[in-house]
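Regression report. Comparing outputs from two consecutive submissions.

Submission 1:
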Amino acid sequence: MIMRKLLTAGAVCGLLSLLTGGPLAPGASADEPTAHPAPKVELVLDVSGSMRARDIDGESRMSAAKQAFDDVLDSTPPDVQLGIRTLGADYPGNDRKTGCKDTRQLYPVGPLDRTEAKAAVATLAPTGWTPIGPALLAAAADLKGGEGTRRMVLITDGEDTCGPTNPCDVARDIAAQGVDLTIDTLGLIPDASTRNQLSCIAGATGGTYTTVQHRQQLTTKVKQLVGRSDAHTATPVATQGGATCAAAPELRQGLYSDRETFSENRWYRVQVPSGSELRASVSIAADRQVNADYGVLLRGVTMRGREIVRDDEGGTGRTDAVSAGIRYPKPDAASGTPPETVCLQVGNSYSAPASVKTTPGLPVELSIDLVKSPDKPSDVAFLGLGRGWWLLGLLTVTGAVLGLFTGWIARWRLNTGRTV
């Protein structure tokens, strides 16, 4: 009995030290990053009748969008407030006035309940008109309030069918309001007129336009855009790569945009501190007609020209963008060791028919991230306890060992006929 009590006391002591931290557990350190305002994202989905077309990997555009939404909802960062708005989902008739009011918020912008959001999307069926302009205005209202970044992602397979107001003018009016709102557009198997309209909408607010021909491409792009809202560089920063590493601009963590002519190489520099890992990715978009079979190269080299990491990806003309990515961990070094300069080379092997203009160059989007190397334990979080988890773990182990030792002594004394 005595042994059990002592064992229990020791174990409870250790458990309490883990759960409460007691007076010895450090609180949030002053140098921890402060909380950022929650970013807001609304996905605006076209559910008009044309979404019945079965030309995305052998399935309907609507089916591809639903599957993409399931994947995106599963991967949405926890601090992103996400909503979903539809256009053309409810009115199947021919009355233009009624059809052009057919937009509603399917899921409100706020903390995400994945099950509820997925259930709402599952009920959708291609129905009516394509009131893009009214949907943009309504979505802008949905995203009002708060101090975080705001992003709208419009997914459609056609032009606005309502007029006479051009949705590009609507996007310009939204931008003129001075709110921090970016509109990105994705066109599902679009024709030239649709591409022009969606490009204009995106350009009015500093957003991006992407043509989508495959379901996985749709999933990847929407995930990227939703994830970008969680970063604190919501809009790419314009830069210009150098012809050599020595002449290259120095980039910090963030998202950057540039342009490359056909078959060009450009250079950028990043300072990688010891104990950190450089994660870089690049996407180059074919925003005009190009010849089939092309590639994108991203590689990291030292200032002396020694290659340390590389990735190259190819395309065949079926996608509008090709991406490559690299990771380079910098091992821990002695205190005071300066960061290592890594030169990033971004190249492409695009070519085009003689009738295609080569200027301006192809759009380049470069992402730079510096994180603590995965081979070094992080002191940021352990069971959600933050800095100082190692001390709490030590207290727990000490309490458990002390309890076992005390119990063993008590049992030995009982077996030898002694009393405590």
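Submission 2:
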Amino acid sequence: MIGRPSERPLMSRQVFATVGLLALVAYASRSIASETPAEKLRVASDFEGGSVQVLSIDQAQRVIRFTPGGDPERGWPCWWSFRIDGSREGETITLDLKGSPLSARNNGKETGKPLASSWAMPAQAAISSDGVAWRQTKPGTLQDGAMRYEISGTGQPIHVAWGPPFTPKDTERLIADAHARLPAASGFELATTRQGRPVRGLHIMATKNPNSPCVWIQARQHAWESGASWVGRGVTEWLVSDADAARVLRSEAEIFIVPIMDVDNVATGNGGKEANPRDHNRDWDSAPVYPEVAAAQARLQKLAGEGRLSLFIDLHNPAPGDKRPFFFVGPPELLSLAGRERRERFIQIAARNINDPLALLEAPRVTGPTYHPLWKQISGQWVNANGNPETVSVCLETSWNTPHSTTDGYRTVGNQLAKSVAELMADVAVSPAN
């Protein structure tokens, strides 16, 4: 039934009042929301490998100013890794990085001055949403002595680091994955560190030959050089793969891989290099400071005594300006003729295989008296002095400051290095001890 004409204006006024009230409530809600302060940015590093010194956080401008954490007595303070909480989705967060002001050690002694900031400032930092899968940030900009990276907020925790972290937990995952793929690959404990942590490695023993040649590959004698462990992961992934050359290598050689030697400093977020009284890679003498170095020496000496130590590879990352990987080797005049020829052959093979996206320099660099006062106590030189006459001992330095210095880039170098190992072992006959 149609209402009386006198009722229509009243109903219109009621509808208008209701609509107006709803609009007012909606406007008030929007105003309150817009005036609610953004969640505060927070920084955390209380996890394995975490390290940072926060200088300030500008909540209004969303700028985090920081320097690397770490104790200079435990190595160069260039490593940093932390988590950002409290970001808004889509907002721009600026990371303002300065070099550590703390005095650093070098050449085995205190320098009285800070480490050059370039060691802490990759052109592109590492970033992750879950702390597992890592990618690079956009290139940073150097301004007023600070490196500035801009990242986008996600509304979720954001992990950032000097480079893609690889911690003892990653070693355990690598061992488990390798064993699941290849039962002949099993974990072993090399030693217990001075702080009570296990130094774990992978042992691949598929050969039936008791006099088989042996390959020893290790990484991270300098804790901050995280890319070295990712190269080690790439080596491992290829070695346990179904590639024909990998199967042949496993059938003919015994293989050891230690992804992290300096476990204590990796776990605590310290740099490791030039630690007091010396770092792991200057500790290879008759009385090592570190139990893991002593344990590696004992195993290597046993293999050499059996005439089976064929190849020793130490994995590192070099200086910021080194854009191509290269080998460090000992002075050739200290090797036997057979040792020199085999090492030259391996470097030629590796230069052919390690070619994309990071291409190996064809000529190695020599570690000698002008390199470091403790050069004879560097692992590669110790192996030269204590291995078999034909033992090949090299240090591979994989560039960390390039657009290809990613987990995929490092793993590719590892794959290519492993193929080079297989080619050498197939190409050169190894004579066991008499």
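Expected: both submissions complete independently.
Actual: both completed, but the second showed a warning that disappeared on reload.
Relevant detail on submission 2: The longest strand covers residues 185-192.
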